[in-house]
Amino acid sequence: MVAASPRSPVVRELGPPGPETLAFERRLRRVMRPLAASWRMTPRGVLWLQRISEPRGRRIRTKEGSQVDVTAIGGVPVEWVRGPRAIARRTDDEPVLLYLHGGGYVFGSPRTHRVLTSQLSDALGIPVLVPDYRLPPVATLPAPIEDALVVYRALLERVAPERIVVAGDSAGGNLAHGLLLHAAEAGLPMPAGLVLLSPWSDLTMSGPSVRANDGIDPFIPEIALWRCARVACAGLDAADWRCSPLFGPDALQARLPPTLVQAGSTEVLRDDARRVADALARNGVPVELQLFAHVPHVPPMWGNLPEGRDATRRVGAFLADVLPEGAAHRPDRRDAAAATSDETTTADGLEPESAGATT
């Protein structure tokens, strides 16, 4: 295969932030940062974090009118999430967004991220497939990569690769990037696109913003990254590309599809986003990096903010560009606002009409 010519990423610095966003950032910094800084990632601490963050057995935040099918693919538990627009547009050859949730490789699940995945599904008009990959104490890296590969291989058997987009946030961004590097190594077809939302791409924490933004990131302190990485790697070399996909071989990076990277300007992980965009572009991959001024970790997660809704709209525009024409809805500002409004909760996470699981 002929190597693609090096290029530069398209970088969009989006701002300035509105007063609502600045006020929200200050409130989040007062509440979340001290909690994250003080949480000890001991075995007991990890279990408690999973327990308090996991909505299992409680009511789960979900976009109103969504359907959720809980099933398994190749032994890996998954959720199929369809927002109202995806339900209305459902076809036999519908595209799929394979979404890998974040949580520092120590907590998180399809249920903790269901409000985000159901909103994305509604905005984009396509289903979102969310694996419930293994976490401590059951397993650490490379188990999440193994689970993601199982799901991706199975998805390729039923959906053409040009109708698949892979995405992930935070540690899930690490996993999404790592999944495609491993898929490239195995000679598997690449999807139509890759979306990395505030990716934690370097578990050695060598990015300058890890220290420069420590203290101003409203969500994640540097110490929390070190604690999570210690648990996630469990003795593996964090500098190995199988833990930190930022350091993946150029030959594999060059095989990756067009990529969208989003992050907030004050994040400790801002430079992980920058360096991933640079690494992919250097290897000829078309990349766009969108930096949102003062928006917290994982911009589309904050649908309560204008910038969060804009981030969702921009994700939708990217999918509409990389998927076959008309396969995904291209949301405008009104669509993005509608998708992130009218949240509801569903008992045990299941809508009555979604009792039948699909594989």
From TrEMBL:
Active site positions, chain numbering: S170
SUPFAM superfamilies membership: alpha/beta-Hydrolases (SSF53474)
UniProt keyword Oxidoreductase present: no
Region (Disordered): 326-359
Gene3D superfamilies: alpha/beta hydrolase
Biased composition annotated in UniProt, kind: Basic and acidic residues: 327-336
Secretion signal, residue range per the UniProt entry: none
Keyword terms, alphabetized: Hydrolase
Keyword Ion transport: no
Sequence ranges assigned to domain Alpha/beta hydrolase fold-3 in this UniProt record: 97-298
GO MF, any single term: hydrolase activity
Low complexity biased stretches: 337-348
Listed InterPro entries: AB_hydrolase_3, AB_hydrolase_fold, GDXG_lipolytic_enzyme, Lipase_GDXG_HIS_AS, Lipase_GDXG_put_SER_AS
Family stated for the protein in its record: Belongs to the 'GDXG' lipolytic enzyme family.
Protein name: Alpha/beta hydrolase
